[in-house]
Amino acid sequence: MKFIGRAKKRLIVYKTLNKSKMKIGGCLCLAAIIAFAGFMGIDQFDPQQRSVRISADADMLPVVATIERAIGAKAQALEHGLASGLAIDGKSALLMDAGSGAVLFEKNADEPLPPASVTKIMTMLLVMEAVNRGQVGLDDKITISERAAGMGGSQMYMEPGEQHALSGLMLGIAMVSANDACVAVAEHVAGSVEIFVERMNQRAAELGMKNTNFVNTNGLPVANHYSSAYDIALMSRELLRHPICKEWFTTWQHTINVGLPGRETEFGLTNTNRLIRQYTGADGIKTGFTQDAGYCLAGSATRGEMTLIAVILGSPSSQVRFNEAGKMLDYGFAAYDTVKIAQKGEPAGRVRVEKGNPEVLNAVAGEDIFILVRKGEQDGITTGLDLNPKVRAPLERGQKLGDVIIFENGKEIERYPLVAEERVEKASFSQLYIRMMKNLI
Question: How far, in Å, CA of 273 to CA of 250, rounded?
């Protein structure tokens, strides 16, 4: 399906209810919830200000809709009840579609728990966003500080004063959960660990991570350091937008040199995430373990256009967390498909700009647009355009020019903004005169 890209990410999952199977009590419950939520009809739903989370019991899917305001996040979450019989062995778990942000399964997903080294997803995210801004580069040479070298737990065993490229430290974080590397990259990006942690919490708030508080960069046990399965999925989804991270996450073994010049030794890295060896399509993300947290995992897998994120916290053993993540991923891939509507920068249409230079402009979207559908329902999704017929210069890049409309089985279900591909200045008097003369000829 040909269209454009990354406008505001919102979820659309359309499901048909089999009314003949719905119980009267369930209908009354649903009606009460809808009335309470203030809904008079779907046409009054404002997708830019709310997200929908639907959960269900074993008898009816979906049954309950609750409305929550999205805080900083660019996605809605639509939760679906699990297939009966699927139980996850862990304190908390969640399955999310990375493309749309849809939550396909949850178990205690909002419960604040110690995340252990899964914390490092946010550390890596802040570094990658700094790289994208041009603030730092992956080739930057970073000098290891006394503080970084003194970190305990999982590490790369680096000495104070030795230097490593930022990319090598990020690989160490991704593969072996290197605590020393976390401190080194935090100091490089923010100047100090404390400032970096402040930024971690700021970014968490922007992403809508309501049940998270970071105290350090690595997840080592400390009071008041916590997150939730849902929040971890949100930051995982953001990190997966950076393709190079998947290269690091899927590297099984690697050798680096550590130590000061003249006494360097080889140090072998073996990935702690066995999901990438055990599950077809697995491409991330991060393991974690402490005595308080138990065995934790944020895992991801991609098949075709669909990427799923499985989070489990407080699992009783290392292998159990991988097995349970696999169960959730199996369910998601079996039950759902992703329809990619648009790709970033892909033109959707052209608009004429009155008194503009240039006179014609591409209308594009700023973000990828994905629709999550039940398996077998992809053919019901179609698209259309609604472009503003009167556009006047000047225009700023990113200014709204219209919408791409999503239909399911001919019924409109959502719209996404189309924006100006570039800035358009007002045409000069001489340019307007030449155009007028051409039209007269």
Answer: 9
* Active-site residue identified among 154, 177, 300, 315: 177
318 a catalytic residue: no
Give the rounded distance of the alpha carbon of 173 from its chain centre.
19
In a domain, 341, yes or no: no
Domain of 258 in residue numbering reads as 116-329
- What's the structural domain count of the chain? 3
The yes-or-no answer on residue 91 being catalytic is no
Q: What is the pLDDT of residue 85?
A: 60
- Does the annotation count 120 as an active-site position? yes
Q: How confident is the model at residue 174 (pLDDT cuts 50, 70, 90)?
A: very high
Q: Which two tokens stand for residue 314?
A: 């407080």
Measured distance CA(11)–CA(77) in Å, rounded: 6
Tell me the whole-structure pTM to 2 decimals. Answer: 0.77
pLDDT tens per residue across span 333-366: 999 998 988 888 889 989 988 888 888 999 998 7
Q: 437 is written with which tokens?
A: 């003369």
Active-site position among 9, 107, 120, 327: 120
Do 131 and 20 lie in one domain? The reply is: no
Residue 437 lies in a domain: no
202 and 285 fall within a common domain: yes
Q: Which one from 55, 92, 100, 117 is the annotated catalytic residue?
A: 117
